[in-house]
Design brief:
- About 45% of the residues lie in helices and about 15% in strands.
- With about 350 residues, the chain is α+β, with helices and mostly antiparallel strands.
- The protein has three domains: about 10-80, Arc Repressor Mutant, subunit A (Orthogonal Bundle); about 90-135 and about 235-345, GAF domain (Beta-Lactamase, 2-Layer Sandwich); about 140-230, Enolase-like, domain 1 (2-Layer Sandwich).
- A five-stranded antiparallel β-sheet has the order 7-3-10-9-8, sandwiched between helices. It has a three-stranded antiparallel β-sheet with strand order 4-5-6, with helices on one face.
- Helix 1 (about 10-25) packs across helix 3, helix 5 (about 90-100) runs parallel beside helix 13 (about 325-345) and helix 8 (about 195-210) runs antiparallel to helix 9 (about 215-230).
- The protein starts with 10 loop residues before the first helix and ends with a helix.
Length: about 350
C-alpha cells in the first residue's frame, strides 16, 4: 500500500517528517532538531531542520508541546506518513508463528478467532481483535432445530465461515422433534448459501403463494423460518486480546481517558458499531486519531481488514504511536492465514 505524502511539501520536508515520526514512535518523546539531525546522519543542519519543522507545523503535520522545544506528529502528520508506507515483509519467525498458530486441525472457527486475536496482540504489543460474522449479514449454510419446552425452539445456525449462532424462538404451534427436523431439512435444501435478507424475502413470497394455505409442511417452514431468520436478532462475537498492553503503554496514563476506552470494550453493541466501521471497505484500512468513529477512540489508531460480505474482520488497536509498517504487514498476514484456515475447515 503505497501512497503520497501530503501535496504542497517538498521532498526534503517529506524526508524530515518520516524521520521525525519514526524517531517519535521509537522514543515516545518530542523530537528536537539535534536528535533529528543525528537520526538523519547530519545530512541537514539543526538550523535547517528547525525551519523545515516550523513549515511542517504550519502545514498542520506537527505540533509543538508547550513544555518542550521538540515536535510531535499530529493525526494529519501520521496520516501523511502512513500513506507513504510501502508494506514490508514480516520477520520469518513471525511468519512461522502465524502459520503454526492458525492451522485448522481440530480447531473450531471460534478457537481460530481466539488464536488470531492473541497473535495480533502478542506480535504487535497492542490490542488484537477479531469480530466474527453477524449471522444476519453472513450467508447461511446449515440450520438445526431442537424442541425445548413448548413454545420454545432452539435454533442453531452455521454461517458459511463456519461460525455458529444459537438463538431461542417461540412458536404458536407445538411441533414434534420429527416435524422440526423435516422443517430443518427443507430449509437446508432450499436456502443453503443464501444471505439472510434473501431468505426472508423468499419466505415472504412463499407466504403469499396459495399453496402455503394448504401445505402443512410449508406452513411450518414459514412459521419457523420467519422467526429463525428474523432481522436484528443475529449475534456477534468479538474476541479482544491484549488490553493489558494498553494499560502499560505510557501514552495512556490519563485514567479518565482509560476508563472511557474500557467502557467501549464493555458496551458490546457500541464496540460492534465501532469495529464494523473500522473494517468497512476493501483491503487494510487505517484510522488515526480523530478519523475514528467514536470520540473515546480519538487518541487511538486502528489497523484493520475485513470481509464485508461475511461481516468478518480483524485488526490491531493501539496508540497512534504504533509501528505502522510492521502492524500493516502483521494484519495482512494474519488475515490471510485466518481466511485460509476457515476455508480449510469448510472443505
Amino acid at each position: 500500500m503505497e501512497g503520497k505524502l501530503q501535496a504542497g511539501i517538498d521532498e526534503r520536508a517529506r524526508e524530515v517528517l518520516r524521520a521525525l515520526i519514526q524517531l517519535h514512535i521509537a522514543t515516545g518523546e518530542p523530537v528536537g532538531s539535534e536528535n533529528l539531525a543525528r537520526a538523519l546522519n547530519r545530512s541537514f543542519s539543526p538550523a535547517t531542520l528547525r525551519n523545515v519543522m516550523a513549515d511542517l507545523e504550519k502545514a498542520g503535520l506537527l505540533d509543538h508541546p508547550h513544555t518542550s522545544a521538540g515536535r510531535i506528529p499530529t493525526d494529519e502528520g501520521y496520516r501523511a506518513y502512513v500513506d507513504s508506507i510501502v508494506t514490508r515483509r514480516l520477520p520469518k519467525k513471525d511468519e512461522r508463528a502465524i502459520q503454526s498458530s492458525l492451522q485448522p486441525g481440530d480447531a473450531t472457527p471460534s478457537q481460530l478467532a481466539e488464536s488470531a486475536s492473541h497473535l495480533l496482540s502478542q506480535l504487535s504489543r497492542n490490542i488484537g481483535f477479531v469480530i466474527a460474522p453477524d449471522i444476519a449479514r453472513a450467508r447461511f449454510m446449515h440450520i438445526d432445530l431442537v424442541r425445548l419446552a413448548h413454545p420454545r425452539i432452539l435454533v442453531v445456525m452455521v454461517s458459511r465461515s463456519g461460525f455458529v449462532t444459537n438463538k431461542v424462538i417461540e412458536l404458536d404451534d407445538e411441533l414434534t422433534q420429527d416435524q422440526l427436523q423435516t422443517c430443518a431439512n427443507y430449509l437446508n435444501t432450499h436456502f443453503a448459501g443464501m444471505p439472510l435478507d434473501s431468505i426472508r424475502a423468499r419466505l415472504l413470497e412463499l407466504m403469499r403463494e396459495e399453496k402455503a394455505l394448504y401445505d402443512t409442511l410449508l406452513k411450518h417452514v414459514i412459521s419457523v423460518g420467519e422467526r429463525a431468520f428474523s432481522a436484528g436478532e443475529g449475534g456477534y462475537e468479538v474476541y479482544l486480546d491484549g488490553t493489558a498492553n494498553i494499560v502499560a503503554h505510557p501514552d495512556f496514563e490519563d485514567m479518565e481517558r482509560m476508563r472511557s476506552l474500557f467502557r467501549t470494550f464493555e458496551e458490546k453493541d457500541r464496540l460492534i458499531r465501532i469495529l464494523n466501521a473500522c473494517i468497512a471497505g476493501d483491503g487494510v484500512r487505517i484510522m488515526i486519531g480523530r478519523e475514528n468513529p467514536d470520540p473515546d477512540w480519538h487518541g487511538l489508531a486502528v489497523v484493520a481488514t475485513g470481509s464485508p460480505e461475511e461481516g468478518l474482520g480483524l485488526g490491531v488497536l493501539g496508540s497512534t504511536r504504533m509501528e505502522y509498517a510492521r502492524v500493516i504487514s502483521l494484519v495482512e498476514n494474519v488475515a490471510r492465514a485466518f481466511s485460509d484456515a476457515l476455508t480449510e475447515l469448510r472443505t
